[in-house]
Automatic annotation (TrEMBL):
This is GMP synthase [glutamine-hydrolyzing]. It catalyses: XMP + L-glutamine + ATP + H2O = GMP + L-glutamate + AMP + diphosphate + 2 H(+). Residues 2-195 form the GMPS ATP-PPase domain. ATP binds at residues 29-35. The keyword Lipid metabolism does not apply. Keywords: ATP-binding, Glutamine amidotransferase, GMP biosynthesis, Ligase, Nucleotide-binding, Purine biosynthesis. The gene is guaA. It comes from Micromonospora pattaloongensis.
Length: 321
């Protein structure tokens, strides 16, 4: 019978058999799949596993800390953090085209991960790379397996030939709800387990316009308020994703106190979906939307207008870029 404890035992035995006494590397994204996959491998082979977290500076408020502090505390995993924020911002400077942003972020990610992997490999006999591939990913890609390409999140090609690893994919037979159950049984932080899907290019594709530190700060503040209020209303699991989008190149007139303002709008984009292929806008209670709107315009001075996206997918996409 399927219980988290059974699956964990079975996977731990398999991983030990596959890996033997070799070293293993794993990239953490902040998402649930890589977190659970790494935790399983750590349970199986302990410090033969080194995790790498590339902080590209495009995550939401609190997320890097969730990986670097809460996750490490919960698992005892050996983590190498690469602070690449300036590098990513530098590469993104002035770029407004969505696909261009994706290309740049994917390229930089591979380069940074590659150099971190080289450092880890220089210290030991690294033969394996952990990937959080789920059953639906296996089906979608035609069931293939083999060598490494860290493309899951960034839709780019893989590592160079001299850095090829064999894959360890302990979630290959599992669905998302099963992965969450494993993560909870492994004692991972709840906030990671229930995190909504989040795109690899992160907040860069939720700033409509060029990305810079200041715009990221504004979007992070607004996004945090939306997440806090959704959670407070007990609605986290009623929505599939809840992008908050900053229209950084748009300004509109407002009024606050005695003065006229000329600030930026943010868009709330809560959606319901089964698989992200199609989606509908979530009918969140008006009072929740009202609280989010009031708090954002009160607490984030750069934002003077909050709008709600009521477009289904199709014809809209979930993200704005
Ligand atoms: P759209 O916007 O196409 O998004 O309706 C469908 C799902 O994919 C996510 N998404 C991405 N994920 N890299 C990712 O890893 C990307 O470039 C990317 N673009 C969109 C989006 O958040 C939604 O879950």
């Amino acid at each position: 019978t399927w219980t988290p404890a059974n699956i964990i035992d079975e996977q731990v035995a398999r991983i030990r058999e596959q890996v033997g006494d070799k070293e293993v590397i794993c990239g953490l994204s902040g998402g649930v799949d890589s977190a659970v996959a790494a935790a399983l491998v750590h349970k199986a082979v302990g410090d033969q596993l080194t995790c790498v977290f590339v902080d590209h500076g495009l995550l939401r408020a609190g997320e890097p800390e969730q990986v670097e502090e809460d996750y490490v505390a919960a698992t005892g995993i050996k983590l190498k953090v690469v602070d690449a924020q300036e590098r990513f911002l530098g590469a993104l400077a002035g770029v407004t085209d969505p696909e261009q942003k994706r290309k740049i972020i994917g390229r930089e990610f591979i380069r940074v991960f590659e150099s971190a992997a080289r450092e880890v490999a220089a210290a030991g006999d690294v033969e394996f790379l952990v990937q959080g591939t789920l059953y639906p990913d296996v089906v979608e890609s035609g069931g293939g397996t083999g060598t490494a390409n860290i493309k899951s999140h960034h839709n780019v090609g893989g590592l160079p030939d001299d850095l090829q690893f064999k894959l360890v994919e302990p979630l290959r037979t599992l669905f998302k709800d099963e992965v969450r159950a494993l993560g909870l049984a492994l004692g991972l932080p709840e906030a990671m387990i229930w995190r909504h899907p989040f795109p690899g290019p992160g907040l860069a594709i939720r700033i409509i316009g060029a990305v810079d530190q200041e715009r990221l700060r504004v979007l992070r503040a607004a996004d945090l308020i939306a997440r806090e209020e959704l959670t407070a209303a007990g609605l986290d699991r009623d929505v599939w994703q809840f992008p908050v989008v900053l229209l950084a190149d748009v300004r509109s007139v407002g009024v606050q106190g005695d003065g006229r303002t000329y600030g930026h709008p943010v868009v709330l984009r809560p959606v319901s979906s089964e698989d992200a292929m199609t989606a509908d806008w979530s009918r969140l209670p008006y009072d929740v939307i009202a609280r989010i709107s009031t708090r954002i315009t009160n607490e984030v001075p750069e934002v003077n207008r909050v709008v709600l996206d009521v477009t289904s997918k199709p014809p809209g996409t979930i993200e704005w870029e």
